[in-house]
Amino acid sequence: QVQLVESGGGLVQPGGSLRLSCAASGIIFSFYTMAWYRQAPGKQRELVTSITSGGTTNSADSVKGRFTISRDNAKNTVYLQMTRLEPEDTAVYYCNTYEIYPVRRDYWGQGTQVTVSS
């Protein structure tokens, strides 16, 4: 059974930083692409950033230069370091991974709230 458990959300002032963590179980973590998505009120869930098993990263233009994804395969954990946070970053952040055989199946964490406000 795949489980993804996020932590690290909270309230931060504009310009501040937060680090989210996602601990995975039930998968051979090092083999999987991991990703962070977010969903703001009234908006669709969107991909923030991802990291492949080989360490290749991909990020949305809105977070490039501010957010960094990383992984620790020894700890089965993926991180999202967020800097220079803006009110527009306020959302519930979800950890994600997926399998593609025989069909794509996505796995999600429960989400963690990030609120950027003064």
Task: Provide a compact summary of the structure.
This protein is mainly beta and 118 residues long. Helix content is 0%, strand content 52%.
Report on the architecture of this protein.
It is built from no helices and 11 strands. The protein is mostly beta strands and 118 residues long. The strands form 2 sheets. Strands 2, 4, 5, 6, 9, 10 and 11 form a 7-stranded mixed sheet that branches. β7 (67-72) and β8 form a beta hairpin.
Topology overview:
Elements: E1 3-7, E2 10-12, E3 18-25, E4 34-39, E5 46-51, E6 57-59, E7 67-72, E8 77-82, E9 91-99, E10 105-108, E11 112-116
Parallel strand pairs: 2-11
Antiparallel strand pairs: 1-3, 3-8, 4-5, 4-9, 5-6, 7-8, 9-10, 9-11
Observed structural traits:
seven-stranded mixed sheet; mainly beta; 118 residues; 0% helix; single chain
Q: What is the approximate shape?
A: globular
Largest sheet: 7 strands, mixed
Task: Give the uncertain stretches in residue-range form.
Answer: none
Number of helices: 0
Q: How many runs of DSSP E, i.e. beta strands? A: 11
Radius of gyration: 14 Å
Could you tell me the strand content as a percent range? over 45%
Give helix and strand order, one letter per element, not per position: EEEEEEEEEEE
Tell me the distance between the termini: 40 Å
Structural class by helix and strand composition? mainly beta
Mean pLDDT: 97
Q: Helix content range of the residues, please?
A: under 10%
